[in-house]
């Protein structure tokens, strides 16, 4: 194999691809990136057996062929090469090393045979559709924070994507929860998505997708089956296994009849929560919200250090209520909201609270109170 | 195959398997018999780990010829008044030991009762009972067991080495001896190098004296007396300080009405009592007696009688946890005395010639360090800045060449380490004098307040290695590990706050359903209130499942199933849900660790003194969360001994 290409192109692709590779591996080939030179392009591919990213780069191929070399090392080498240089990659005659040349630098990396490299792409996809990168990115951005990290509830370790019917037509919806709070975001369902199986995309994959979708104008082609998702944008193809589990029936926990409505200036509220929670030192320290006509009083009590109180003017006319929340969760949600005014819909101190942007909206958050 | 009645011999051999498991169980049965006979002196002789010979002689009541003939028959005993298994006041009562031994070994019993003109003797050989014959003997009984298990070769094969069996016999005798300080025990034989002899102890301190004989005087120095009584149940004995712990639970002795037992409930209660001051894998040393009305306890659970059942197990448990916790709090900042002694042992210049090596580090050898010669490269002299400065002697100390060798005096710690790492020791030397000394001498500047020295932990004089506070007391010096000490103080404060304020719980959006065995579900639901206080709210969810509705907010996004299962197991094992408290305390401990003064932080004299005073005032401050001591004391007398002044 012999190929010549621009350092900049190679680096960009490697940046996408090498992140998939775990730092420590028990199977040596998983530390490597697959390089295949064929017909005017170089294809790079890396995998951790659950997630695979491959990307093509234009190259001048003199001798087609394929091999694998350590991914992180190759990335570091290319990153340190001088800008604007041409990189030549050539396998040695005994097929033991890959030589990388640029300017006056030469590297020889040990190779592992390409035939050992695992392939995730096999299998058929039942549904395929296209969605705007910006839309898909929004679904992820708005829900990612609520993904659970607790591994025993593996079915919560990802975002649940599915379609639902609504009066405004079919919607493509993303939901994530860690059992304490829930985030839901939706966009109009693209053609072809309707009837897709509900899928849970793992946390790591979600993170990688987020990083790949940095061009908002682009479109993303999504193909999926019960067990896999493949996502193509530009030269990049991401294939990932899905979490094999049943996402809970989240619809039941989204409160419908919460009648106490509260409207508050989002930025002010966020700052107030942040300020009063300075007093708390422990993880999970509660902030108490006391609502009465036209005002909200936020209180944090920490017997070690003292207490903090802040009063906000709000739009509230239901009967007074006191409710405690984890301040961390309140901040997370306040962070996610986009409108100037946040709407809280409350029932009582022991029931879930609904938080939304003001106006017609396609995101909603549910938060469970704390008992203090 | 036709069903048939087994022969008497086979029945006895099968039954023997339950009572007689190994030589040590023979010794246990025989010694208990001797005690029940009112002996004041019991002699045990063994050979080859008891496999070839065990002989137990006592000066007890003895038996008449008629009794003797009956004694080796099954279910014959003098100890049980007709049919009342509720009122057991003797160690034995089942009437099984002697026939069982006789069934599997060659048993000879010689005995003389006061009523008889001479002694009698009987032999049982693998179940073959001989005739009662006259024998020459003083008052008492001598039981001789030879060739144990010769009649059941299968069991013989499963015996351990002679050494292991010898050790097991020693354990048994020690265990019984602990409970009976007024009886003299001796244990000898060709299979042990050193005969064991526990002379009878008398007087009010008899118990402590016997404990000293059996467990060594270290335990006596590090023991807290336990005494508590509630509703007719009396707990007495001694419990070790948390800093005096072991890696296994072998040295935990429980006696119920004088009977050595090893009961899950008691072990669990002990763990509960020490949970907060010992790491999970360390074990306290205790000798505890529980005295209660025989009607309140059932010892007839297992032939070996190591298990017991209490009628009111919660009372026993509560009494024990309460009494030990109270003692721990009272012991306050008291730490193990062995710490100081061990340090002295290290410091003692064993066989080191003062003129050649080993002594150079002497001028500041206060920290409990490794032996002086260890880890030291050849010390070299570092030229110090010429000045009349009173503190200068510290700078002119000998310093190690290599950073990692600096286990002893680290007067020039930082520079030595930098220099050592690069091997440029020489070039750094001129700068040495400008660097701060590791021994913070600012405490010296303060006039030493005699009032401060009167405190148990004395007046802070210096901080060494930026972690050890050296304090002077009226008759010695105290070394405090500032990180461990402060961590414990912060931990106690956090725990108090937790207890005062209650545990905040995070309600769950989706209740977590945990499937469990039905009996686990019931156990959990029985304690639902107690768990709710700790922030874990659960309720029944059909048969074989509970639904968790709230979890302690402190635990964050946690493995709920694992937690609930662990708690269910804890309740089953020890009838207490310690795990949840432990988990919460663990979070508190982690926060304490992060929130406390680290080693390496220089403390001002005022800060050091404040820390010492707070330690004195805080209960349980003598050890860190893992049972390591937070401070040790060296007595002036001991130090003087080191220097040959005494």
Automatic annotation (TrEMBL), chain A:
Subcellular location: Cytoplasm
InterPro entries documented for this protein: DNA_clamp_sf (IPR046938), DNA_polIII_beta (IPR001001), DNA_polIII_beta_C (IPR022635), DNA_polIII_beta_cen (IPR022637), DNA_polIII_beta_N (IPR022634)
GO annotation, biological process: DNA strand elongation involved in DNA replication
One GO term describing the cellular component: DNA polymerase III complex
GTP-binding found in the keyword field: no
Positions of the DNA polymerase III beta sliding clamp central domain: 131-249
Xref: SMART domains: POL3Bc
GO MF term set: 3'-5' exonuclease activity; DNA binding; DNA-directed DNA polymerase activity
Summary of the function given for this chain in its UniProt record: Confers DNA tethering and processivity to DNA polymerases and other proteins. Acts as a clamp, forming a ring around DNA (a reaction catalyzed by the clamp-loading complex) which diffuses in an ATP-independent manner freely and bidirectionally along dsDNA. Initially characterized for its ability to contact the catalytic subunit of DNA polymerase III (Pol III), a complex, multichain enzyme responsible for most of the replicative synthesis in bacteria; Pol III exhibits 3'-5' exonuclease proofreading activity.
Family: Belongs to the beta sliding clamp family.
Protein known as: Beta sliding clamp
Organism encoding this protein: Breoghania corrubedonensis
From TrEMBL, chain B:
Xref: SMART domains: DNA_mis_repair (SM01340), MutL_C (SM00853)
Limits of the DNA mismatch repair protein S5 domain: 211-329
Entry keyword DNA repair: yes
Record-level GO BP terms: mismatch repair
Top-level taxon of the source organism: Bacteria
CDD domains: HATPase_MutL-MLH-PMS-like (cd16926), MutL_Trans (cd00782)
GO CC field: mismatch repair complex
Record-annotated MutL C-terminal dimerisation domain positions: 460-603
Keywords annotated in UniProt: DNA damage, DNA repair
A matching Pfam family: HATPase_c_3
InterPro entries, per database record: DNA_mismatch_repair_CS, DNA_mismatch_repair_MutL, DNA_mismatch_S5_2-like, HATPase_C_sf, MutL/Mlh/PMS, MutL/Mlh/Pms-like, MutL_C, MutL_C_dimsub
GO molecular function, one term: ATP-dependent DNA damage sensor activity
Family: Belongs to the DNA mismatch repair MutL/HexB family.
Annotated NCBIfam families: mutl, PRK00095.2-4
Role noted for this protein: This protein is involved in the repair of mismatches in DNA. It is required for dam-dependent methyl-directed DNA mismatch repair. May act as a 'molecular matchmaker', a protein that promotes the formation of a stable complex between two or more DNA-binding proteins in an ATP-dependent manner without itself being part of a final effector complex.
Protein name as it appears in the record: DNA mismatch repair protein MutL
Organism: Breoghania corrubedonensis
């Amino acid at each position: 194999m012999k190929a010549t290409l621009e350092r900049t192109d190679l680096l960009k692709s490697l940046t996408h691809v090498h992140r998939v590779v775990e730092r420590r591996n028990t199977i040596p080939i998983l530390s490597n990136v697959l390089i295949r030179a064929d017909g005017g392009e170089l294809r790079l591919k890396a995998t951790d057996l659950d997630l695979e990213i491959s990307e093509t780069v234009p190259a001048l191929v003199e001798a087609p062929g394929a091999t694998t070399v350590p991914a992180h090392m190759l990335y570091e080498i290319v990153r340190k090469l001088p800008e604007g240089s041409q990189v030549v990659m050539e396998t040695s005659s005994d097929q033991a090393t890959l030589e990388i040349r640029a300017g006056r630098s030469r590297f020889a990396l040990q190779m592992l045979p390409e035939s050992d490299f695992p392939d995730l792409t096999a299998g058929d996809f039942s549904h395929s559709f296209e969605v705007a990168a910006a839309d898909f990115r929004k679904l992820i951005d708005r829900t990612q924070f609520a993904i659970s990290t607790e591994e025993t509830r593996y079915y919560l370790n990802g975002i649940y994507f599915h379609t639902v019917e609504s009066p405004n037509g079919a919607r493509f919806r993303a939901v994530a929860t860690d059992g304490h709070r829930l985030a839901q975001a939706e966009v109009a369902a693209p053609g072809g998505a309707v009837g897709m199986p509900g899928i849970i995309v793992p946390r790591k994959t979600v993170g990688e997708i987020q990083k790949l979708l940095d061009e908002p104008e682009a479109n993303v082609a999504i193909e999926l089956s019960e067990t896999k998702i493949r996502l193509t944008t530009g030269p990049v193809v991401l294939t990932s296994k899905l979490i094999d589990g049943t996402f809970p029936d989240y619809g039941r926990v989204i409160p419908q009849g919460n009648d106490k409505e509260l409207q508050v200036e989002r930025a002010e509220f966020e700052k107030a929560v942040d300020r009063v929670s300075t007093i708390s030192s422990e993880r999970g320290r509660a902030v108490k919200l006391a609502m009465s006509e036209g005002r909200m009083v936020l209180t944090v009590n920490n017997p070690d250090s003292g207490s903090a109180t802040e009063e906000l003017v709000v739009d509230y006319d239901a009967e007074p209520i006191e409710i405690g929340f984890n301040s961390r969760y309140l901040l997370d949600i306040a962070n996610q909201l986009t409108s100037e005014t946040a709407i809280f819909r409350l029932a009582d101190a022991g029931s879930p609270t609904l938080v939304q942007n003001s106006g017609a909206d396609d995101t909603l958050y549910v938060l469970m109170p704390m008992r203090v | 195959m036709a069903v048939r009645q087994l022969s008497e011999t086979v029945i006895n051999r099968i039954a023997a398997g339950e009572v007689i498991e190994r030589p040590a169980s023979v010794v246990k049965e025989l010694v208990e018999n001797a005690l029940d006979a009112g002996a004041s002196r019991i002699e045990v002789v063994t050979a080859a780990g008891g496999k070839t010979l065990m002989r137990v002689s006592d000066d007890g009541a003895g038996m008449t010829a008629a009794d003797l003939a009956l004694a080796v028959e099954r279910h014959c005993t003098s100890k049980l008044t007709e049919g009342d298994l509720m009122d057991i006041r003797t160690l034995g009562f089942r009437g099984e030991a002697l026939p069982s031994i006789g069934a599997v070994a060659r048993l000879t019993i010689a005995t003389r009762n006061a009523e008889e003109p001479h002694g009698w003797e009987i032999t049982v050989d693998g179940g073959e009972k001989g005739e009662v014959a006259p024998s020459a003997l003083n008052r008492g009984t001598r039981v001789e067991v030879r060739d144990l298990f010769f009649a059941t070769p299968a069991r013989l094969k499963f015996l351990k080495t002679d050494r292991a069996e010898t050790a097991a016999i020693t354990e048994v005798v020690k265990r019984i001896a602990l409970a009976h300080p007024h009886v003299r025990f001796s244990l000898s034989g060709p299979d042990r190098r050193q005969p064991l002899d526990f002379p009878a102890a008398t007087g009010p301190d008899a118990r402590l004296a016997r404990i000293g004989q059996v467990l060594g005087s270290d335990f006596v120095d590090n023991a807290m007396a336990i005494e508590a009584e509630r509703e007719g149940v009396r707990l007495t004995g001694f419990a070790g300080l948390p800093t005096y712990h072991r890696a296994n639970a072998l040295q935990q002795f429980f006696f119920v009405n004088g009977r050595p037992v090893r009961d899950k409930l008691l072990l669990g209660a002990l763990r509960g009592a020490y949970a907060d001051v010992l790491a999970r894998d360390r074990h306290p040393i205790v000798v505890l007696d529980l005295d209660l009305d025989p009607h309140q306890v059932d010892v007839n659970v297992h032939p070996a009688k190591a298990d017991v059942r209490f009628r009111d197990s919660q009372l026993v448990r509560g009494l024990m946890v309460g009494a030990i916790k109270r003692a721990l709090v009272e012991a306050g900042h008291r730490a193990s005395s062995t710490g100081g002694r061990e340090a002295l042992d290290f410091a003692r210049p064993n066989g080191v010639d003062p003129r050649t090596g080993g002594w150079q580090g002497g001028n500041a050898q206060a920290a409990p360090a490794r032996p002086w010669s260890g880890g030291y490269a050849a010390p070299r002299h570092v030229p110090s800045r010429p000045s009349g400065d009173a503190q200068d002697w510290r700078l002119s100390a000998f310093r190690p060449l290599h950073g990692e060798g600096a286990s002893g005096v680290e007067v020039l710690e930082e520079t030595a380490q930098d220099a050592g790492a690069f091997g440029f020791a020489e070039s750094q030397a001129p700068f040495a004098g400008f660097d701060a000394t590791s021994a913070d001498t600012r405490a010296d500047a303060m006039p030493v307040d005699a009032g401060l020295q009167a405190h148990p932990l004395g007046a802070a004089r210096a901080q060494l290695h930026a972690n050890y506070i050296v304090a002077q007391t009226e008759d010695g010096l105290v070394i405090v590990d500032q990180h461990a000490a402060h961590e414990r103080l912060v931990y106690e404060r956090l725990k108090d706050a937790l207890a005062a304020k209650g545990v905040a719980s995070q309600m769950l959006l989706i209740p977590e359903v945990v499937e469990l065995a039905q009996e686990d579900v019931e156990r959990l639901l029985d304690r639902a209130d107690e768990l709710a206080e700790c922030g874990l709210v659960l309720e029944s969810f059909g048969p074989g499942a509970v639904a968790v509705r709230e979890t302690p907010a402190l635990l964050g996004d946690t493995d709920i199933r694992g937690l609930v299962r662990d708690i269910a197991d804890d309740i089953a094992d020890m009838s207490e849900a310690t795990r949840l408290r432990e988990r919460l305390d663990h979070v508190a401990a982690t926060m304490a660790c992060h929130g406390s003064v680290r080693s390496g932080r220089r403390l001002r004299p005022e800060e050091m003194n404040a820390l010492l005073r707070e330690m004195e005032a805080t209960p349980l401050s003598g050890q860190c969360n893992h049972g390591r001591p937070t401070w040790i004391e060296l007595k002036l007398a001991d130090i003087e001994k080191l220097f040959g002044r005494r």
